[in-house]
Amino acid sequence: MTKIDFMQGNTACAEGALAAGCRFFGGYPITPSTEVAEHMAAKLPKLGGVFIQMEDEIAGIAAVIGASWTGVRAMTATSGPGFSLMMENLGFAVMTETPCVVVNIQRGGPSTGQPTMSAQGDMLQCRFGSHGDYSIIALSPASVQEMYELTVKAFNLADRFRIPVFLMADEIIGHMRERIEIPDTIPAGERKLLEKDTLPYHAGKDLVPGFPQFGKGYGVHVTGLTHDERGYPCTTSPSVHEELVKRLVAKVESARHEIADFRVTNPGAEIIFITYGSPARTVEQLIHDHPDANIGHLRLRMVWPFCENALGEFPDARVFLVPEQNLGQIAREIERHTSVPVVPLPKLGGALHTPAELKAAMEAWR
Amino acid sequence: MRLVIDERRCKGCNLCTIVCPYKIFRQGAKPNARGIVVPELDRPERCANCRLQALYGRTLCGMCQMICPDQAISWKDEEIGEPTKVAIEF
Amino acid sequence: MTYTDWLREDRLPHIYCAGCGNGTIINCTLNAVDHMGWKKEDTVFVSGIGCSSRAPGYISTDSLHTTHGRALAFATGIKMANPGLHVVIFTGDGDLAAIGGNHFIHACRRNIDLTVICMNNQIYGMTGGQGSPTTPVGALSTTTPYGSREPTFDLCQLASAAGANFVSRWTSYHVKELTRAIHTGLQIPGFSFIEAAVQCPTNYGRRNKFRQVMDQVEYFKTHAILQQKAERLKAEGKSVPENSIVIGDFIRRDRPAMGVKR
Ligand SMILES: Cc1ncc(C[n+]2csc(CCOP(=O)(O)OP(=O)(O)O)c2C)c(N)n1
Ligand code: SF4
Ligand code: SF4
Ligand code: SF4
Ligand SMILES: [Mg+2]
Q1: Among A9, A108, A176, B77, which residue's CB has the most CB atoms within a 10 Å radius?
Q2: Which residue puts its alpha carbon closest to atom 3 of ligand 2?
Q3: CB C159 within 8 A of CB C75
Q4: For residue A135, which of A259, A321, A311 has the smallest C-alpha distance?
């Protein structure tokens, strides 16, 4: 039986994690994400899980990665300043192919910026913030319901692809309270273990090697150095490095159409809004207020990897309007994939776009 | 048991020469094929471990093996038929 | 089984320079681990970045070679998530006390059930010989070309003050004592910290009047002074000779610990 509840976005995120079987949380308090940690601190011990408040975010993500190698589903939650601190170890998770979930309840930056105000300024950082070439998955919830659902999904994707998966929420969604339906079953996913007598970093067709969980007798060496299929450091061979990095990218990018997650409203429209996270709410309001205006809406629930095919859902598009709580981070990505004009509608400072603002932007293209 | 230095691993640091109570290891004189001057063994049959390991069923002394940073020192069983020299010093 | 059975033979010889003390510390550690009678599949080695931190790559158990300074944070995650695993950390003076200093004191404070072996060569070996928080005053390094002027950390005092259950220091000359100390550390629940003074002939010895590898190891032999003796000298109002390396077990206690298997 589905359970109806009323809760905050951050709480829904923690509940989703627990439902997905997350049994380890390591992190450091930071507004506006702290409620996720607090909820995990209250619930995990009762479920036989571990909550640990580390000395900083670098340690938080490190502990999560360590825990993940013991086979447990593990997560951390943070916001801008903590997210910046995590970057080196996130690259380590990518290189070692460690499944983990990182929640970022975005606030205004740069630096300490606006701790209590909403923003979407870390959308490129989550994709490119660590050094070197790589690929990750980023999901972006636009409701309390999705804080729950997409957190569950993040764990399944992290295990399937053996990568860090980011839940890129914003302060508005994190702190909003609304109705939520908690399902009694959730989509299952599991971490495929390494088959015996297979080299630990040998990947098959799906480009994702089996997971040699610690404590199972694999005797695996895991290193952030460039490594061969045995997992042994191999740092001067150009071909070993090139093959490894290309596989790390390809395992995600080649699956992007299959895993794409977006919602389409009015596919026949000519003026299309593209959103993720809280700006979607204003667009929904606008459509609600002007049912006959034929306003198109592409709402990305998965922002990275960017699935360019989603743009093709609007064959008559004359313009893509992209309201974001940043200076046009994803608008720039959209622009790469279309000849239709892309108009960023940036809004900084923490307030949501108003329907009037979006309407005005739309009218300019009538 | 026979004391051996694995020439593929030894890097010629001579640390073994400072720990052996019997001074069995002596600095070598000429480089081997890898350009490493491997220590020479002076009557290795005197080594406590060569003599007594089989009897006690565990490594005795073992200082040289422990300090050798390159895991180059070990003891091998004599081949069948190989004469075992017994050296007891009074 | 003997300790050599724990080596990842297909990766030997290792990358360490001739005479590098790190190889000796690996021997002592594996000897102690072997004496514990642990199963390989229950044992995990963790390290940060540096020459010392390459050690787990030569051991045939599961091992995690992490980022510079963060080994203890990764190890905390492993141990808390699965207290059934025995977790042993290799680290260097730079890795542990410079970039990882914060993780170090907090792991001691939590008194988490880990055993940490720090190969203190008083230098950044891997990056070519820069000064570290333990480079002695006056010593030459590539970043202290006129002699280091910074006061140093005493890693054992740091661990003691921060709350570790077991704290001990030996050198690469004192292989038997070091092995025994590591063995003790492995047995004691809570955080065990063992500092091993090691020679880095390439990047420390060469610049600091140790022409031969043996010279620095001889120095360890002649300048090491047992903690009890140092205490006695102090009690008698005499001074401990300058440049002594005080060795011995400094702390052994039973503070409440985390991550201990029940
Ligand atoms: C974040 C980061 N900063 C700097 C480095 C470069 N680096 C690699 S090893 C090292 C110092 C290692 O010194 P230590 O921990 O004493 O190990 P040793 O090589 O002496 O055993 C440094 C600075 C790095 N790998 N990562
Ligand atoms: S085991 Fe002892 S006696 Fe034998 S060679 Fe080594 S150091 Fe010498
Ligand atoms: S200690 Fe080992 S590496 Fe060094 S000279 Fe002796 S056998 Fe060779
Ligand atoms: S640089 Fe120093 S610490 Fe590194 S391997 Fe060489 S001798 Fe050892
Ligand atoms: Mg060092």
Answers
A1: A9
A2: B47
A3: no
A4: A259
Q: Is C145 helix (H, G, I), strand (E, B) or coil?
A: coil
Distance CA A62, CA C89 (A): 14
pLDDT per residue as tens digits for the range A325-337: 999 999 999 999 9
pTM of the model: 0.97
- A139-191 pLDDT per residue, tens: 999 999 999 999 999 999 999 999 999 999 999 999 999 999 999 999 989 89
Task: List, as ranges, residues 215-244 from A with C-beta within 8 Å of C.
Answer: 215-225, 232-233
Give me the torsion for CA of A155, A158, A159, A163, rounded to 10°. -160
Q: Which residues 6+ apart lie within 8 Å of B35 measured at CB?
A: none
Q: Mean pLDDT over residues C236-258, rounded?
A: 96
Q: Is A285 exposed, middle or buried (0-12, 13-18, 19+ CB in 10 A)?
A: middle
The tokens describing A304, both together, are 């990275």
The yes-or-no verdict on residue B77 having pLDDT over 90 is: no
Residue A70 burial class via C-beta count within 10 angstroms: exposed 0-12, middle 13-18, buried 19 and up: buried
Residue carrying structure tokens 């010593």 = C139
Residue B84 has a pLDDT of 67
Q: Which stretches of C106-262 are assigned E, i.e. beta strand? A: 115-120, 166-171, 192-197, 224-226, 245-252
Residue segments in chain A with a per-residue pLDDT below the cut of 50: none
Q: Helix crossing, A57-69 with C71-81: angle to 10°?
A: 50
Strand partners for A179? A6
ipTM over 0.90 threshold: yes
Nearest to C47 by CA among C78, C23, C68, C24: C68
Nearest to C46 by CA among A253, A214, A108: A214
The CA distance from A61 to the nearest CA of chain C, in Å, is 8
Task: Find the B27 Cα to ligand 3 centroid distance in Å.
Answer: 10
C208 C-alpha to ligand 4 centroid (Å): 14
Given pLDDT bands bounded at 50, 70 and 90, which one contains residue B87?
A: low
Nearest to C174 by CA among C185, C166, C165, C182: C182
Q: Determine the pLDDT at residue B88.
A: 59
Give me the amino acid identity at A19. A
Which uninterrupted H or E stretch holds A271?
A: strand A271-275
For the segment(s) B2-76, the CATH number from 3.30.470.10, 3.30.70.20, 2.60.40.10, 3.40.30.10 is 3.30.70.20
pLDDT at B59: 87
Share of chain A above pLDDT 90, in %: 98
Q: Return the bridge partners of C115, or none.
A: C88, C192
pLDDT digits (tens, 9 = 90+) for C23-34: 999 999 999 999
Which top CATH class is C17-252?
alpha beta
pLDDT at C159: 98
**Domain boundaries of chain B, sorted by first residue:** 2-76
Q: Report the pLDDT value the prediction gives residue B1, as an integer from 0 to 100.
A: 87
Separation of alpha carbons A182 and B80, rounded Å:
74
| B34 C-alpha to ligand 4 centroid (Å) | 20
Sign of torsion over alpha carbons C155, C160, C165, C168: positive
Domains of chain A, each with CATH number or no CATH: 3-182 (3.40.50.970), 263-363 (3.40.50.920)
Q: At residue B89, does pLDDT exceed 60?
A: no
The DSSP code sequence of C53-94 is: GGGGGGBSSEEEE-STT-HHHHHHHHHHH-TTSEEEEEEEHI
CA atoms lying within 13 Å on the CB side of residue C110: 22
Dump pLDDT digits (tens) for C135-192: 999 999 999 999 999 999 999 999 999 999 999 999 999 999 999 999 999 999 999 9
Three-state DSSP at A178 gives strand
Interchain contact A342–C (C-beta under 8 A): no
How near does any CA of chain A get to the CA of C106, in Å? 7
Whether B47 is in the pocket of ligand 3, judged by its Cβ within 6 Å, is: no
